[in-house]
Amino acid sequence: MFATAMETLEMSEDVTFDSVVLNGESRKLAGAAVDTTTFPDNYTPGQVMAAEDEERAVGVWPTSKGMVPLTRPRTVGPSTPFDGGMKTYKRSNVAFKSGAKMTRANAVFVVQAGGTLSNVIIAGGGGVFCETHNCALVNVWFKDSVQSALHVNSGTGITTITGGGARNVARRVIFGQASGTVVVSGGFYMVNSGRLFESCGTCGPVKRGVIVDGVVSVNPTAELIRMNSNYNDRGTISKATITTSMANYPVCTRFIGGATPRKVGNGAAPPSARTPRLE
Q1: Which residues, listed in sequence order, are joined to residue 244 by a DSSP beta bridge?
Q2: Pairwise CA distance, residues 136 & 185, whole Å
Q3: What span, in angstroms and rounded, lies between the C-alpha atoms of 87 and 145?
Q4: How many domains is the chain built from?
Q5: Does any domain span residue 57?
Q6: In angstroms, rounded to a whole number, what is the distance separating the alpha carbons of residues 180 and 197?
Q7: Which of 10, 22, 42, 59 is 20 to 30 A from 257 via CA?
């Protein structure tokens, strides 16, 4: 059975990856055994699934209620919240290039400070551009995003992602360019996707943070969060379940930010099928 090859990491207590603290103290991981996750027979660990197989295996991806092509970004302002009615939205006139940063011009939605975007599926390689932090996403689902699913551009404050999910997002789901904090909660569901949060390493020395309080990641292709030690970034994981065939899955990686970011280590490398906690 494939289930024996899969490992589930569950975090139910706060695990804070504060670069300054981790560099100054010697901490160790302790753990207690947890059950491995069981999937239907059509799921092969380590292999990207076709969409129809994936939906049967996971059973959580929402059904689209129609397609809405856009030729320019739809703006969501503080006085104009947008409920998309679980329709699928995509740009019909943009060819997204891997490795390029999302811009305001090529986004599917632009959310301004104080704006709330809810109940949408975003497809076609695009994503959401949070203009100046303090954006709220509720039940927003991303499919096949090429650059990032959510780009937090500038300003400072708190941006929240509640529920929703990501499927086949190539590099990272959330790209934090601005200072401030991103809070992910409500059982955000990731399948076959890269890291949940990446703190920009080339955007200058400002402190960026992420709080993960309810995430499920199946078959990830990268670590859960990436932070910059020299910018005093802070990542806190309160609740996450990760199902992966990777040995020694790196939940958090630490980099030195600059013109050419350099990896300096892992904030934590939990043992297989354990509930890690800091002692």
Answers
A1: 7
A2: 12
A3: 17
A4: 1
A5: no
A6: 13
A7: 10
